[in-house]
């Protein structure tokens, strides 16, 4: 958590992905130390993916900063989010429902309100999600159309996307590469090992590392 606070403590002075910063930092980043190569192939489109859970306090702490981080990503790079299902606070079934609901919220432009509402419901109100109806209610209160939610939860493409995300999650977990959240992966190929970064310059090093990985 100390490193997390340092990561975002300098957000106001954000100057991501400048050529000067990248060239100054690239030489210090090593595969197997600062990042782990988890795939031989990169994703078809450049992306920065966060593996997270609505049940994770550290993931909630990331949220406001990721919103700012997304604004300054290189052109053409998209921030993607995958909700994991291995947290102990509830069943894998409920967590998979949340995975599908997040995809629906993203496709219907409700995610920016839906995600904070879910975090608040679970972590501030300490309420419990037991059913799809519970999630639907939060989606509607976030400005979403209940009919679109109902349709989306049964939609083949949304279910398929959620299953693909789970398959990738399971593969990384089995390989002991995804062991906690939040975890960030660049282009489906490079998993960031935040613990290896310099705590004194954590924010600078982190952003420079992400920029470096997009050049590989």
From TrEMBL:
InterPro entries: DSBA-like_thioredoxin_dom, DsbA/DsbL, Thiol_disulfide_DsbA, Thioredoxin-like_sf. Residues 48-198 form the DSBA-like thioredoxin domain. Residues 1-24 form the signal peptide. Keywords: Disulfide bond, Periplasm, Redox-active center, Signal. GO terms for molecular function: oxidoreductase activity. One of its GO terms (cellular component) is periplasmic space. Pfam families: DSBA (PF01323). Disulfide bonds join 56-59. It is found in: Periplasm. Gene3D superfamilies: Glutaredoxin. Belongs to the thioredoxin family. DsbA subfamily. This is Thiol:disulfide interchange protein. It comes from Colwellia hornerae.
